[in-house]
Amino acid sequence: MNLDYSVVFAKIPILLEGCWVTLQISFFALLLGMVFGIAGALCRISSNKVLNSGAFFYVWVIRGTPVMVQLFILYFGLPQLGIRLPSMVAGVLGLAINTGAYITEIIRAGIQAVDRGQMEAALSLGMSYRQAMRRIIGPQAVKFCIPPLVNQFIMTLKNSSIASLVTITELFRTGEQIIYTTFRSFEVYTAVAVFYLIMNSVFMVIADKLERRMARQ
Amino acid sequence: MSCIVEMKHVFKSFGAVEVLKDFNLQLTEGEKVVIIGPSGSGKSTVLRCINRLETIQAGTICFEGQEINDQSNLCALRTHIGMVFQRFNLFPHKTTLENIMEAPLIVKKMSPAEAEKIAVELLARVGLADKRDSYPRELSGGQQQRVAIARALAMNPKIMLFDEPTSALDPELVGEVLGVMKDLAREGMTMVVVTHEMAFAREVADRVIFMDQGIIMEEGTPAKIFEAPTQERTQIFLKRIRH
Questions:
Q1: CA-based nearest residue to B213, from B243, B234, B235, B192
Q2: Are the CB atoms for B172 and B2 separated by under 8 Å?
Q3: Which residues fall within 8 angstroms of residue B216, CB to CB, at 6 or more apart?
Q4: What was the pLDDT predicted at B1?
Q5: Mean pLDDT of A61-77
Q6: Which of B75, B79, B85 lies closest to A121 in CB terms?
Q7: B235 vs B232: CA distance, rounded Å
Q8: Per residue in A1-20, pLDDT tens?
Q9: Residue B83: beta bridge partners?
Q10: Full-model pTM
Q11: Cβ within 8 Å, pair B92-A140
Q12: Cα(B142)–Cα(B164) distance, rounded to whole angstroms?
């Protein structure tokens, strides 16, 4: 055994930069993914056939194909059609489209888990569908959505490593670059893993606190 | 007395199941009508059609002379029609007071102070003034249903629909809910009540309707329906529920 982690320690500042990029990609992908997911869920429960089947198609295609293939289509495929996306845009957009499909299903399930009587009570008081969704159904659905959403957020943060393949220098790609010059693959990959674990752990702790607080209410 | 609700030749089916078959009903202002009948006879569906929670396949339903259909302003219509559900359907994420204030605030755009004043008064009226800051899960079923009645009354409706309001309650809690309903009846509210509480029907109803298989089999004063029903099916039903 000739493990030498001093190489890793020397590269911590660069790895932290990689973490920062990973966090940025994940943050924007999740933000956009939430927008896609909320819109998708509202379409999925809509009685409008076009919206409904559009959202169904979105979820079907995205869940049924690998995220890597989706990213490659955006970054390497689209230029052939004359659409050239910067790598960061392709990375964030690809991850957002992907996570948005899963979030669509999470939110749809959350909304449908709220007792039907709640909507009926709200409507019978003269509320519009929109008012009932925002004031009555939404706040109750959030409770059902939080645990699976936390899962999805974690998945997205880990999936962001795939963005390295469309030339974004996030944590994983930073690690690979360090290996090119140091040849310390075991040390660097394990260090990269630890950084992912730390980022996700911070997130899990926050999510756990949030969930506990919601449960008390 | 003017007609407040009129249902004419109403047909309603869920898939292949016909629930209302050429159903006709007229309600006069101030009238208290109790609908009885076996489960699946369409009693609840009648109520749910009146405030358009269910759409009908054929026929017309008029509220104060105006036909209600999909083009109507349903929200405005529903503010005039209070509904109380079998399972209360209080908003679990809101306190008792907030449950009652919600619709006045959101639908009627009342000021918070005004809405709170109404809510406090209504809570006192249903005997729950001390529960204003409790959440629904902290209340008994009977208390929850009284709050639900107060919530519906907060919109100052012209008619109240009760869909088996005591069926989900423990027997010892039924009385407190019926008490609130009797008070309401005494104050002159127009009421349609689907219930199995025959003593309540006898005491409060101007008219009892016996429904079976989507039609009105028989109707009349409580005395007539309970003492001298002419239809065999009414007799059988009454005999069954008395045992």
A1: B234
A2: no
A3: B23, B24, B25, B209, B210
A4: 65
A5: 96
A6: B85
A7: 5
A8: 688 898 889 999 999 999 99
A9: B161
A10: 0.86
A11: yes
A12: 13
Nearest Cα of chain B lies from the Cα of A63 at a distance, in angstroms, of 33
Size of interface A-B (CB pairs under 8 A): 57
Question: How far is residue A97's CA from residue A88's CA, in Å, rounded to a whole number?
Answer: 14
The secondary structure of residue B95, as a DSSP letter, is: -
Specify the pLDDT at position A143: 87
Is the sign of the CA dihedral B98, B104, B106, B111 positive or negative? negative
- Does domain A6-216 match CATH 3.30.70.270? no
Q: Among B27, B31, B11, which residue's Cα sits nearest to residue B19?
A: B11
User: Which H helix or E strand runs over B225?
Assistant: helix B222-227
SS3 B89: coil
Burial A163-198 (b: 16+ CB within 10 A, else e): bbbbebbbbbbbbbbbbeeeebeebbeebbeebbee
As given in the structure block, the two tokens for residue B48 are 């749910």
- Sequence spans of domains, chain A: 6-216
- A115 contacts on B by Cβ (under 8 Å): 89
DSSP per residue, A116-166: HHHHHHHHHTT--HHHHIIIIIHHHHHHHHHHHHHHHHHHHHHHGGGGGGG
User: Which residues from chain A sit within 8 angstroms of residue B74, using beta carbons?
Assistant: 123
Q: How many CB atoms lie within 10 A of CB B40?
A: 13
SS3 of residue B82 by DSSP: strand
Residue A182 forms contact with B (CB below 8 Å): no
Q: From the list B51, B87, B107, which residue is nearest A127 (CB)?
A: B107
Nearest to A117 among B76, B87, B107 (CB): B87
B78 with A115: Cβ contact below 8 A: no
Q: What's the CA gap between B33 and B159, in Å, rounded? A: 11
| Interchain contact, B78 vs A125, CB within 8 Å | yes
Judged by a CB distance cut-off of 8 A, whether residue B155 touches chain A is yes
